[in-house]
Write a structure and sequence with these properties.
This protein is of the alpha+beta class. It folds into three domains: 2-65, no CATH class; 73-251, no CATH class; 253-454, no CATH class. The chain is 54% helix and 13% strand. It contains 14 helices and ten strands. Helix 11 packs across helix 13 (420-441).
Length: 454
Amino acid sequence: MEENLKYENYSSKTGSIIKKCINKDFRLKRNTHNTCSKCENENKEKDNYCRFCGASLSNIEKINVREEKNKNINPILKQLNLSSIIKTAVSSIAILFIMSIIFKVFVSIGFDDLGNFINPIHIMMGLNLGYVDVSSTNMLGSGSITAHLGLVLLLLGPIISLLLSNVLFMKNKNKSSKDVFLNSLGVGVVYAIIVFILSIISRMRLSFNDMLQYGMAVEASYRPMSVLLNGFIIAFLTTYLLNFKKKYNSENIYLTLLKKAVVIIATGYIVTFVILTGITLTDRSYLYEFGMYSYVDQISIGLILSQLSAYMWGFANFIPVTISNTSISAFSLITSDLFLDTKLIFAVMIALGSLIILLNGCHLKRKYKDSKVNVVLVFSACYAILMGILAIFSSVIIGGNISLLEMNNYQGSVVLGIPVLGAIISSFIYSFALTSIGHKLYVFDDNDIDKNIL
């Protein structure tokens, strides 16, 4: 008897389980309609044993692990629409490459040396706002520069290419908000992988044997991880916003609030750009204080205003911004050395930002008054993440040293932008506070309004 104890699964005295083992290769499968396989009588759904003959209503069957995995993966792959995702990502890269060739032609006309130095792939990486490292060596010394030219206007290149490819290959491929999210995720991943590979193969080294250059060698390369992250964000958001339709609003509140946060930031940015454009047409003196007036004749004024608009909107969210190496925040505005007119511009931005966020809080209360989800918290989280992304994209950082013909290396740096962590924290607190106020201030009931109208 004792020899058989090792084979027992249950105690003969108490009936408790002795061996707690699970064989993943087998499972119990209920008979169809709970019909007994012996007496062929039907039983209730909750029955485990036949009410007529006592036979088990379940059968043991072996699981094909590969088939089970395929059953779980296939629906996801089918919903991803891989063919459209690949076509969208690849065609957007092709369109962007054509844009880069055209851009190179203009650069070659205006700057002969620079046109010979860069190629279309470098331009593509620049349009995706990647970090670039440049180093130079010659007989007199060596130096390096790390640069991130986060010019918001450059994003138009990849955005336009993604919009065109989405219209060609992704249109009418989405039937629900989940489809939009998964397909956008897929386009973002494929696009990011392609630009990641391109950033690796775009590394270049040039040598100059001219006596005036003292045998100078220059190396330049984009940081693959920065290009990977930026590419994913650009492709995902562009695809998501283009394909997310109004009829999907009721399907997933989280995805709807994500789009809402994007719309609020875009609205604030556009309104800020319009205001700055109006001010600049009448008086450009404020550009002196930002150290940008000298660039007006060299660079398009639109490029400067598009960049300043991002910083101004960040400032309107109580985020400290750095312009021409000078940090400005809402708390230091009054004591700053800026002229009164410039301070008034910043004050207008604060009032504008507050109004937009407050109205958004009222809209959320009106639209989601019966929702069990904390819409204010979810919106603020999405808003803060997107403001962090704006901070990543809009930062302009040039630092390091470059060895010229002289024996000494000249140190220098340029910083314009918004701190990423500060943007996330400040915008979350700011949006949560003002959205909550707007949410509570909205006390109108649509039913009462309809009754008064009738």
